[in-house]
Specification:
The protein is an alpha+beta fold. The protein contains five helices and 14 strands.
Length: about 300
């Protein structure tokens, strides 16, 4: 009887051990995924952002587009372009496509743009980056001949914040979701704002002064809409040196068309394959501290 009881005890112990091993294997086979932090913690220089104030009926604007592209080609990933179609040469008119946005119109008015094309480099004052102020314009507005000088100055400046981000488009719901992280390499004592803008390339339209065909001119970097309003959203987390900030996910429903479905006078179709996101951090409304351009992945 004792032998039988002993054998039963041994069976129970072995069964218990096998159960523990089985449970252990099951738990380790489905580990909790490690969350990736998207922003670098290394010190970096600023990425310069040109807000190019332009319009389809502006004959000199294509020259501005060419100059901006030349700077971007020489500085890949370090110089970003936002083509803000606003003002008199962009306002809706029969026979011309309409790329005007509510946010772009407000930014244009605030900058006090006196003529087109004009630009701001990272919304920094001309006096801070050694560029000449455009006659009649605001303190950060310059002519296209100053863009290279302004961009070079900004790209040489250390940034106080690094940005990492990703953008995902759900083809079933047509919802675009942008998420990101910030890392502050030095303290920011003034409230910072996060700005997320949706842009589109390869839109063909009539363009005064456009080459080679003014009736079929390729528009790129066209501002379509902002996911964070005109001046962005305040960052409420700590912005001290070494602070890591995880941004709230921002979502927007991407329409099929912008500014109406008329392909001659509307803003054209929204083609996700031709779209991208620019995310940047400002000190209040002005001075872009850093920026990143991200492609859109499709689910």
């Amino acid at each position: 009887m004792k032998k039988i009881l002993l054998n039963l005890s041994m069976v129970f112990i072995v069964f218990s051990m096998l159960t523990l091993i089985s449970c252990s294997k099951e738990e380790t086979s489905n580990p909790k995924p490690v969350e990736t932090y998207l922003a670098s913690t290394a010190q970096m220089n600023k990425v310069a952002v040109l807000e190019d104030f332009t319009g389809v009926r502006c004959g000199y604007c294509p020259d501005g587009h060419l100059r901006a592209k030349a700077i971007a080609d020489l500085n890949p990933g370090k110089f970003l372009i936002i083509a803000n179609h606003s003002g008199g040469y962009a306002n809706p008119s029969a026979g011309w496509m309409n790329f005007v946005t509510t946010e772009g119109t407000s930014i244009n008015a605030d900058a006090k743009i006196p003529g087109y094309p004009a630009g701001t480099i990272s919304r920094m004052a001309n006096t801070a980056i050694g560029t000449a102020q455009m006659t009649g314009g605001g303190p950060n507005v310059m002519g296209r001949g100053e863009w290279t000088k302004g961009a070079t100055a900004v790209m040489a400046m250390p940034s106080s914040v690094n940005i990492g981000a990703k953008a995902v488009f759900n083809s079933a719901t047509k919802m675009l979701t942008v998420s990101g992280d910030l890392y502050f390499t030095s303290e920011e004592t003034v409230t910072n704002n996060i700005n997320i803008m949706l842009l589109q390339d390869h839109i063909f339209s009539k363009q005064s002064g456009g080459t080679p065909d003014p009736n079929n001119y390729e528009q790129n970097n066209v501002l379509r809409q902002s996911l964070t309003g005109t001046w962005g959203e305040a960052i409420t987390s700590a912005t001290t040196a070494g602070a890591k900030v995880k941004l709230t996910n921002h979502e927007v429903l991407v329409p099929d068309f912008y500014n109406g479905t008329d392909l001659a006078t509307g803003g054209g179709m929204a083609k996700i394959a031709d779209m991208k996101v620019i995310l940047f951090v400002t000190r209040g409304k002005y001075e872009i501290l850093n920026a990143i351009q991200i492609p859109i992945s499709v689910q």
